[in-house]
Amino acid sequence: MSTVIAPPKPGKPWTATPKQRAIVAGIYLAAAAVSFVTVAVTPMKGKLAYFTLFFFASIFIDFTANYIQRGVASAKDAIARGFVTVGMTFAVLPIFSILFEVVKRGYKGLGFGLFTNDMSLNSVNDPLGNGGLLHAIIGTFIMVAIALIVAMPIGILTAIYLTEIRGKFSAPIKFLVQAMSGVPSIVAGLFILSAYVYPITGSLSGFAGALSLMILMIPTIARTSEEVLLLIPEDLREAGVALGGTQWRTVALVVVPAAKSGLVTALILGIARVAGETAPLVLLTGGGEAVNLNAFSGPMGSLPIYIWKCFGQGTEESIARAWSGILVLLVIVLALFMMARFLSERKVTK
Q: Across the chain, where does the E strand assignment appear?
């Protein structure tokens, strides 16, 4: 009777063992002890002193431990790992600090009435229970929606021209798209003010604000869509042409469907790019305090202008309202980025 030998389970040699984790924890604890003792016995004080001493002490201890155990190469790797860690800390710490501060200051003004009332009958200096930002949320949604309706076809068709057609105007168009990416938002607002408001309508409106947001949204959508389309394998295009399809039918029926999730991600990133713009809306929308569903007539409120007005008053109630508006806007933008992240990483299932 033969004995069946079970196949070995796949291992993960890169995974740290409990002993290695204990060594890393010991290094950090030793570095923390060195920093606290040094600050206690020297004139150096403050958070910056703690952090700087902890950083250099952890690198030195890690370098020494790796040099004793594994040699010079591992010790050099420890130094590089230490600098990478501190770089990551400098990148992540401000983000968490901003999130913590916004949540700490903004949750006090949250309430059901904040999302069901506008400020038409109230002042920003009234108690937090009076009024709300319904007009700002609706105004932001309307203006971003109008900007997206115009910017979406322009941005995606521009990306298709740059990646698929590649005509003689590709170089100047690409240069203009890159140049528009760096245009300050106030410039877009001034352009719409001088080209549309003064000579044509003579009045401020939500549509004028949407036009300025469209100018800022187009380059984001175009550049992101271009990168997404470049990721589509050339074999798909060749297969479509080999089956008798024209270039346009191949792009419309093969390339674009293959890049669908990436193009949706580009649209979401474009929305997130303009959702918090303030300068052009201050110039163009009038910042109404009541709900206005007509983007072509009358002033229209928005979340950035609501925040700007509340901070401008400087009272305790108005500043609390401003932080609540910042929290709502931050949640909306974070939700959009998380949605874009989910769509960009979603795997195609058969």
A: none
